[in-house]
Structures are given as C-alpha cells and as structure tokens.
Amino acid sequence: MTRAVQATTFPKQTARDELLSMLAFRRPAWTNDENAFISRFLHPLGLTSDEYGNLFIRIGDAPVLWSCHTDTAHCQCGKQTLVVKGGVVTTDDKSSDCLGADCTAGVWLMVQMIRAGRPGLYIFHRAEEIGGKGSEYISTQRPDLLKGIDYAIAFDRRGRQSVITHQWGGRCCSDAFAISLAAALDMQHKLDDSGTFTDTANYTDLIGECSNVSVGYFNEHSKKEALDMDYLDLLLAALLKLDSSEFIYERKPGEDDEDYSWLYDDADQEPYVQYTSKSMARFVEDHPDEVADWLENNGVSIGEIVADINMRGGVVRKR
Q1: Per DSSP, what are the bridge partners of residue 78?
Q2: Cis status, amide bond into 103, omega within 30 of 0
Q3: Which contiguous run of DSSP H or E holds residue 264?
Q4: 242-255: pLDDT as tens digits
Q5: 56: how many CB neighbours lie within 10 A of its CB?
Q6: 141-186 pLDDT per residue, tens
Q7: With CB atoms counted within 10 Å of each terminal CB, which end of the chain scores lower, N or C?
Q8: Which pTM was predicted?
Q9: Residue 93: how many CB atoms within 10 A of its CB?
Q10: Which residues touch 227 (CB under 8 Å, ≥6 apart)?
C-alpha cells in the first residue's frame, strides 16, 4: 500500500540558489525541520510515500535506482548560516555541528534529474544517518519496489573521484560495472573499495550492482564540512546526458567478494569482516592505521618487524 503526497508550490529559484536554500536546513531524522524540508523541496515533484516515509518516483523503465537520503547528521534543528567562497560552501554557524551536504548534495542532484525527466527509479530514503532504517524497510518489507532494477547508484560519497565497489567491507558491485559507470560519467572517477555505508548497501542481496558516487563534499559530519558546488554542477551535467544502457552487469544479487566474508560476534550478533589469508596484504592496505595501532598496542616494534623479515630472507625497501 502506498499513499500519494500532496504538492505544495514555492517560488521558483535558480538551481544554485535552490541548493543553498536546501543546505540552510538542519534536519536530523524524524524532526519537524526534515518534514518542512521534504514539504518544500520534494512534495512538489509528485512523489509517492511508503508506510515508513521513504519517497519515490519511477520515470520510464530504465533498470537503475538513484538513491539519496533526506536526513542529515545535525544534532539540532533550525536554519544555519552559510558561507560561500568561490564555488565552495561551508557554515560558520557556531551552533551548527556540520554543513549537511551529506546528503543534501544527493537530494539536489536527484531533484534536478527528476525535473529533467531522466529515466530510473528515484528513492529519497529516510533515517539513513541513524542506521539506514529507510532502506532497511524497503529491503525487508517492500522488495517489490525494486523489481526490474539491476543497478543502484547512491549520491552520498565524499570527494570528487570515487565510484564505490565495496561497502561495510564487502563487495557491493563488480569492477566491470564501476568501470562502465566511471566511463559513462567521463569525469576521471576511480574505483574505490573503501566505502563505509549508505543506503545501497542494504540492497546488495536484491540488486546485483550497488554503488555510491562522489558528490563533492569533504569532512562530513564535522564543523569543517564543505561542498564543492562547481564539481556538483559538472556531475549533474554528466548525469543529465548519461546513458544507463552502457552499464555492464556482472555481479549477481547476493554474491560475495572472494576476499571477504561476514562473521558474527556471538555476544551481540554485530557483523564484522573476516579476510581470507590470501588477502592479508589487501587488509593491511585497506586499514593501515588500524593495523599499526594493533601492532603498537601488542608491543610489536618496527625494528622487530624488519629484523624478522630480514631473518627470513626478505628485504624491507624504502618506498
């Protein structure tokens, strides 16, 4: 069962002004400010809402899901003061703990794409910042919504170059798909296996190719958060001419990366990643700081490591 959302009309703004208006909202999940944001910027699009509050619309029959979330990591509600220097926006509001470009940038992109009539299923998820609750609801209670979807692309990644291939330590899309997506964008994006979590991670058992693309924010969830609006404009231009039929489909729903497997702690059933022995180098490369901390905390010195390697006939070379 779904319910239609009533549209509300607001004065028309330029795309850049609208982005800044969106960023002015501090909107923790399930707050009046998030609801006000949705009413102002999303309801006029004629979206449908599911029982949890996720908003969605399907344009055409392209087998691609475009994903973002409506909540931010702010601790408090209210409007915030923005500072724009060149094409970069930040906030110097002393009462604000972050800018909230995560995921306002993604919301803005999808609003522009919908208005332009770009094909695909668009989902504006609720409660991502408090555990991906909206996408979890869809994956468990409304998987029918994802019928016919082969690709899920989130707009919720820091930086300017990432096409995410792994989330939560496990593979979420094939390298072949990621390469085809980067090529279609034609903005020099690179494959990135260091993804943490966004909503598409909850769909990997239902959709074969799930990714996340850089949208130009940095230092997310902190007072230093900033958004490169010029990059975001370029990304939008690329998305408006992107042809999803050029994507390569290789990973099947539920397939795991051979170098990763999930284990669960018996005490609290929280998942953690186990790496196979052949991927130890990959693990160290992925988590150098954590490995260094572990070695130091266990009393292992650099000298001991070098001496042992030399004793075994290896050589530690300067990089």
Answers
A1: 26
A2: yes
A3: strand 260-264
A4: 999 999 999 999 98
A5: 20
A6: 999 999 999 999 999 999 999 999 999 878 999 999 999 999 999 9
A7: C
A8: 0.80
A9: 17
A10: 23, 88, 89, 90, 99, 101, 104, 105, 216, 217, 218
